[in-house]
Amino acid sequence: MQEASDSVLLPADWRGGAKTPLDADTAFNGFISTNVVFALEQLGLFTWFEENGRLDVPDYCRARQLDETVLRRLLSAAETFGYLVLTGDTVAPTPAWDDLRRKIGFFTWGVGGYHDVFANAASITRGERVFGTDVRRDEGMVALGSAQADLALMRHILDEQIAELDFSVLADLGSGISERVSRLVKSRPGARGLGLDISASATRLAAGTVARHGLTDRVQPICADVLDVLFRGRRIEGADGVDVAMSFMFLHDLLVDPRTRRDVIPALRKAFPHAHTFLLGDTTVRPRGEGDTLPVFSTGFELAHALMGVPIYTREEYENLFREGGLHLRRTIPFGAPHTYLFVLEAQ
Ligand SMILES: C[S@@+](CC[C@H](N)C(=O)[O-])C[C@H]1O[C@@H](n2cnc3c(N)ncnc32)[C@H](O)[C@@H]1O
């Protein structure tokens, strides 16, 4: 019997560099600095510094119709935090900027996507407000943050795994704007893809993604609730031909209902009966008792899902679920973001 894979080596940076207990000064400045970093990303500074070593404040403000006084205050705050150096009208990034750039997706995800959820933690705890009706996340920012994290931290890992697989039709479940499925299909001559997402707006954006990649005859975005496909008899044309089924940062959404949790993997296999490989990526619960430092993202991911009432799982729980569902775990691969894994699974 296959056991959970104990042998996975955790990347050293998953331990993180934030030393606990976070004293009050660090905690408060952390709150302000995440907002400053997110604002600078929204104002285009990360893109700018990828192509230019320096930024001229008056020119930058003129070209984008920004309030120069306010931008200077934001830049000055960023300088205080050690991210930028201001010399007169000129701004340059410090070495710390590079680490922010790699991890910017988590700032977009946390500040852009979940600010209202975190700000309402007390009222959700009291039962005065409920996620989904009184409190919402910004889906667009969550999708953008995921895409930024994918680009900086995850893409190359998936590409290595995909390169080893024989496939002609891919299905991506919870595919967002279908960027990933389009990219993978494009890299494999003659391949085709399906991207299923519950969000009508994401599916509309996906049509644009597919057109931009020149793949309208090869990738089909479909607006569908995957739970309808798994449990309520919704048929997806072409599902029979899928040979690799994937999902990223989405599996936990399928497992919310405890009554159907154990049926999800068997139902997935049934929905894609000829899929020989399942590539399932998701973030897991950070193991406790492993030192006194924290990485980016993990605590935010855990708390956000608690506030939304969505359970999340350990690596071992996922691996057991796959085994019980009849999938053979070929390998578990650390997938860039802290405590996030790509599970490569074979249908038996
Ligand atoms: C965290 S995002 C991940 C998006 C993309 N896979 C990525 O990694 O960037 C989760 C996606 O799942 C979609 N989703 C949530 N519940 C769904 C369901 N029941 N059926 C289909 N899609 C769903 C959301 O609309 C969203 O696009």
Automatic annotation (TrEMBL):
The keyword DNA-binding appears for this protein: no
Keyword presence, Iron: no
Molecular-function annotations in GO: methyltransferase activity
Classification via CDD domains: AdoMet_MTases
Keyword terms of this UniProt record: Methyltransferase, Transferase
GO biological process: methylation
Domain of life the protein comes from: Bacteria
Protein name, UniProt field: SAM-dependent methyltransferase
Species this chain originates from: Streptomyces dangxiongensis
